[in-house]
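> call design_seq(struct)
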């Protein structure tokens, strides 16, 4: 089943059956399409502990990736992964639908963080931030002082001139190696000539791929399952890959005749290499290993930019099963508390697209959490004494790029 097409569409399909997914009861699935999404056009990027972030820029775009002129909309940034404090985290869109966050800062320790930008009635967008420690400089070795010879007593024999050389240290301080932190899912980094350069990520049409631009190079990637089904980007614009699935790669701006090598990290696994043609472009397809574990990975492209400078592109991706990557209806399970904690209800959702938001509704309570990179999430509710004997549990998946955007509802008896 596919989602609706143009902007603003709405489709409601309801079924009723005993023993439905998520437990006995009613399963209701609704499909939504979002005409307007928030898109991060300039990411805050990464920094060292003593550094600063880039000024993030967010734009309202339609489903085709074109800007939407909508002024006066308040956009708020908040941390959805990691603990810390954001400052200057609110901005208002201008006439072009663009919101800029001057003075944006994150007060936090080393680690990886996800910032989500939200605005009423618009699909949210996320961006990763990694804070790395300051590298320890290599100390400069201090030369040993020259040895002093005691003065010789005069002797009647002819004097002999003797010269003793002073030892000097030939060692010189090497520049400290730059700390390279793997990019968070949905973000990219590019080094050209050993220096980090400004990167811009842009979604391809219908969210079925990603283009990374860092002058003079441009790299576009897509992803398909092993049986050829195209995978959409997940929430926040992360490329999804599946075991034995393919990743078509097209690149330009590279040195003609050079070699472009692809590797999957964190455990380095070679995905092959290819030759750049005479026009400086490369087209090829790599296959993800069948044993690639689910979770966050880094796709690394290593080559030579036009002009001879070495270039390394790192892209944070998420590996998942085809069911999770394609965004199937979430499976909702409910676990009631033990006899001494009968008022506790644990709700779990699996097979959710990674990093999509899931809102759980139980007995007039609701909580929203983000699915893990493995497509799982869970919450716990305390039921009031006035709760009915039959409890309705609803899980709603939200977010731009979250396939199906479905609602699953199930009813479970409350333990007396």
């Amino acid at each position: 089943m596919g989602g609706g097409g143009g902007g603003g569409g709405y489709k409601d399909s309801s079924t009723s059956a005993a023993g439905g997914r998520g437990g006995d009861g009613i399963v209701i699935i609704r499909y939504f399409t979002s005409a307007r999404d928030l898109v991060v056009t300039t990411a805050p990027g990464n920094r060292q502990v003593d550094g600063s972030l880039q000024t993030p820029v967010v734009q309202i775009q339609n489903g085709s990736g074109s800007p939407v002129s909508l002024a006066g909309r308040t956009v708020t940034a908040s941390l959805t992964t990691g603990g810390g404090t954001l400052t200057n985290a609110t901005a208002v869109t201008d006439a072009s639908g663009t919101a800029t966050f001057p003075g944006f800062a994150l007060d936090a320790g080393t680690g990886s963080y996800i910032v989500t930008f939200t605005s009423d009635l618009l699909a949210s967008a996320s961006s990763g931030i990694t804070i790395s420690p300051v590298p320890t400089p290599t100390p400069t070795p201090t030369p040993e002082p020259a040895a002093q010879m005691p003065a010789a007593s005069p002797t009647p024999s002819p004097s002999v001139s003797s010269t003793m050389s002073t030892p000097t240290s030939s060692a010189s301080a090497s520049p400290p190696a730059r700390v390279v932190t793997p990019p968070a899912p949905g973000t990219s980094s590019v080094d050209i000539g050993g220096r980090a350069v400004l990167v811009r990520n842009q979604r391809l049409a219908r969210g079925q791929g990603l283009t990374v631009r860092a002058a003079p190079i441009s790299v576009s990637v897509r992803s398909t399952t092993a049986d050829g089904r195209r995978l959409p980007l997940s929430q926040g614009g992360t490329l999804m890959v599946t075991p034995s699935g393919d990743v078509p790669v097209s690149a330009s701006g590279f040195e003609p005749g050079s070699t472009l090598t692809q590797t999957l990290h964190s455990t380095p696994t070679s995905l092959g290499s290819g030759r750049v043609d005479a026009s400086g472009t490369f087209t090829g397809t790599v296959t993800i290993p069948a044993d690639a574990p689910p979770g966050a990975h880094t796709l690394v492209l290593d080559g030579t930019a036009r002009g001879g400078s070495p270039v390394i592109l790192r892209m944070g991706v998420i590996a998942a099963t085809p069911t999770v990557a394609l965004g199937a209806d979430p499976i909702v399970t409910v676990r009631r508390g033990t006899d001494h904690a009968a008022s506790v209800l644990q709700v779990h959702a699996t097979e959710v697209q990674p990093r999509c938001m899931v809102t759980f509704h139980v007995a007039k309570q609701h909580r929203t959490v983000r699915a893990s990179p493995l497509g799982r999430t869970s919450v716990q509710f305390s039921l009031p004494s006035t709760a009915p004997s039959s409890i309705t549990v609803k899980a709603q998946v939200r977010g731009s790029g979250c396939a199906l955007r479905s609602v699953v509802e199930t009813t479970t008896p409350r333990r007396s």
